[in-house]
């Protein structure tokens, strides 16, 4: 939990630094979107590591724990696929649909985080 918090803070800090240092990119919504998507992909990479940890736990799990871990891992896989789809939709969204696509992607990422933790 603490490690996740530290990683999120580091990503948020680096994004804030990158966005704050370049004033010209703040005017361009497409550039802002690309920066935000890059940040989301970093978070997705962290969640992929947690999914890998779940797989490792499943291999070592007792017969009692296996069904719960299998279900959690299956749910995480479904949520990850949905998250990737929403990120792709956000990346391809037209300017007038950026906000809605961003909210959908944020919701999908939040669902994945809940499924993994």
User: What is the chain-wise order of helices and strands?
Assistant: HHHH
Major beta sheet summary: none
User: What is the number of independent domains?
Assistant: 1
Average pLDDT taken over every residue? 81
Unreliable segments of 5+ consecutive residues: none
Percent strand: under 5%
Q: Rg to the nearest angstrom?
A: 17 Å
Number of strands: 0
Distance between the ends: 9 Å
Please describe what this structure looks like.
This protein is mainly α. The protein has helices at 2-21, 29-60, 66-92, 98-116. The mean pLDDT is 81. Helix 3 packs antiparallel against helix 4. The protein starts with a helix and ends with a helix. Helix content is 84%, strand content 0%. It has one domain (2-116).
SSE diagram, text form:
Layout lengths: L1 H20 L7 H32 L5 H27 L5 H19 L1
Helix pairs in contact: 1-2, 2-3, 2-4, 3-4
What are the salient characteristics of this protein?
117 residues, mainly alpha, 4 helices
What can be said about this structure in brief?
This protein is mainly alpha-helical. It is 84% helix and 0% strand. Helix 1 (2-21) runs antiparallel to helix 2, helix 2 runs antiparallel to helix 3 (66-92) and helix 3 runs antiparallel to helix 4 (98-116).
